[in-house]
Write a structure and sequence with these properties.
CATH superfamily: Cupredoxins -  blue copper proteins
CATH architecture: Sandwich
Strand order of the largest sheet: 5-7-8-3-9
Helix content: 25-40%
CATH class: Mainly Beta
Radius of gyration: 20 Å
Number of strands: 9
Shape: globular
């Protein structure tokens, strides 16, 4: 039995298509790590990275690596201490509660948009982060929520990486 060149090419193309789809699925399921760090005695605390661009369906895991402090990852949302909403309208809020060293907390992000979060005891010290999920529409209301200060202190607002920086770099680190 002979196999025509067209059949071989068709099978090869089908295999490439299947592999590329499964690669996207694996990438979407990949867990992204954010470390909660700080200097001794709490003189400086931060999330590393501070800005991320991920795909819908990806999980983010925050791990406290700071031996001298407890940290939280808490969404800006009215359900969390009456804070202003700075996550997409249909997104679920989260609050890890205090994480001791080596403890972790995870969230899977399904709604496209910008998610701003903070550490409860270190927010005023600039321990905030921003996650962008997917490629939100520029006129879909997601920019308006983060453009307004929403009553956040100036030092907190200045600590966030810009949306443009995250979109360009995919991962933003600051120490």
């Amino acid at each position: 039995m002979s196999v025509a060149r067209r059949e071989v090419l068709g099978l090869g193309g089908g295999l490439v298509a299947v592999l590329s789809l499964s690669g996207r699925d694996v990438w979407a399921e990949e867990v992204v790590e954010i470390r909660m760090q700080g200097r001794a005695y709490g003189s400086h605390a931060w999330f590393d990275p501070i800005g991320l661009l991920i795909k819908p369906g990806q999980m983010v895991r925050w791990t406290s690596t700071n031996p001298g402090n407890s940290h939280t990852t808490t969404a800006y949302h009215p359900a969390n201490f009456g804070r202003p909403r700075r996550i997409p309208e249909r997104a679920k809020s989260w609050d890890s509660d205090y994480l001791l060293p080596d403890a972790s907390f995870s969230v899977t992000f399904t709604e496209q948009g910008v998610y701003d979060y903070y550490c409860v005891p270190h927010e005023l010290a600039g321990m905030v982060g921003r996650i962008i999920v997917g490629e939100p529409e520029p006129h879909g209301g997601w920019m308006e929520a983060i453009a307004s200060g929403s009553g956040l202190p100036d030092q907190t607002l200045k600590a966030f990486p810009t949306v443009e920086e995250i979109m360009a770099k995919r991962i933003v680190r600051r120490v």
